């Protein structure tokens, strides 16, 4: 994944392959290591309450994987909250394919997935390779 400055807003984008067809939750976690990815990056202290409510900044939209096992992810997020130096050293996690049920809901207003995301399929630490002015 890459993070690009778009005049004060930051674009996260990436290309993925080898995943099962369907929607996979993708999050930025607080942890600096992939063996401790319990808490989602949440600088505004929002809770996952119900559809239509504010959401955790690190709770990104679902990664939609095609039948060929590939996905392209692009998301323009809030300006300074997702500034590269605010998320540097944190981890980005792709979870197992969503299995809708009692614990998983979709917010119709935002498209966000609310509920338990499932096991970790992939995890990587976010490394920022630029000067503070990036």
Automatic annotation (TrEMBL):
SUPFAM superfamilies: Cu,Zn superoxide dismutase-like
Pfam family, one: Sod_Cu
Domain of life, source organism: Eukaryota
Span of domain Superoxide dismutase copper/zinc binding: 10-126
GO biological-process terms attached to the record: superoxide metabolic process
GO MF term list: metal ion binding
Stored InterPro entries: SOD-like_Cu/Zn_dom_sf, SOD_Cu_Zn_dom
Protein name (record): Superoxide dismutase copper/zinc binding domain-containing protein
């Amino acid at each position: 994944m890459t993070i690009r400055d778009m005049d004060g807003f930051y674009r996260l984008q990436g290309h993925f392959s080898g995943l099962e067809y369907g929607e996979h939750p993708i999050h930025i976690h607080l942890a600096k290591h992939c063996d401790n990815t319990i808490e989602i990056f949440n600088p505004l202290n929002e809770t996952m309450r119900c559809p239509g409510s504010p959401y955790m900044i690190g709770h990104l939209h679902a990664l939609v994987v095609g039948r060929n096992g590939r996905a392209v992810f692009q998301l323009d997020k809030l300006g300074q909250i997702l500034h590269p130096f605010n998320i540097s050293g944190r981890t980005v996690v792709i979870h197992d394919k969503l299995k809708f049920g009692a614990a998983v809901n979709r917010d119709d207003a935002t498209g966000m997935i609310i509920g338990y995301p499932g096991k970790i399929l992939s995890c990587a630490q976010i490394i920022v390779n630029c000067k503070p002015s990036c």
